[in-house]
Design goal:
alpha+beta, 165 residues, globular, 6 strands, six-stranded mixed β-sheet
């Protein structure tokens, strides 16, 4: 089944290459559910172009269309759409400035930057996100294991090693 949409975890990091924050969006009609930014791929649009457009529309974070957007997997939603998902890492200052300049998403989404430690809060994980469908990086679909901390740890290790070299 072809990919029809994209979702990305937008993660802010400090100068020491430690991830410090995560940007999530909320639909104004469903304030109790947070999700990773993303949406459908438009006809004739590449996956990369859809990632850049959706992230800018929903968060104001301008990504470079020439960046490499690694896919971490695919998931299907209840409507039958197939989403490519992954993580994008940006400097935290850039993240804050971009979101503050945007204010709200193009469709009224509320943009929230939260400390990365929120991922260890069971209340946040159990009741404040849409489990599975719109927040795929929080869970492995085969078992309830947090994926995002593993992705973050691998990214931090790789980038701190490169910085030390």
């Amino acid at each position: 089944m072809p990919v029809t949409g994209v979702r990305r975890a937008i993660l802010g990091h400090n100068q020491d290459m430690r991830v410090t924050s995560i940007a999530l969006v909320m639909d104004p009609k469903h304030l109790d559910c947070r999700k990773h930014p993303g949406g459908k791929i438009e006809p004739g649009e590449s996956r990369e172009a859809a990632i850049v457009r959706e992230i800018d529309e929903e968060t104001g974070v301008p990504l470079n269309p020439h960046d490499e957007f690694e896919s971490l997997g695919r998931f299907s939603d209840s409507k039958g759409y197939v989403f490519d998902f992954g993580a994008t890492f940006v400097p935290e200052e850039f993240l804050w400035k971009s979101v503050e300049a945007k204010g709200v998403g193009n469709e009224g989404e509320i943009i929230e930057i939260l400390p990365i430690d929120i991922l260890s809060d069971p209340n946040f994980l159990n009741g404040r996100t849409e489990r599975g469908e719109n927040a795929p990086l929080f869970w492995d679909h085969r078992e309830p294991t947090m994926l995002l901390p593993l992705v973050i740890a691998a990214w931090e290790e790789e980038h701190r090693a490169a910085q030390a070299a």
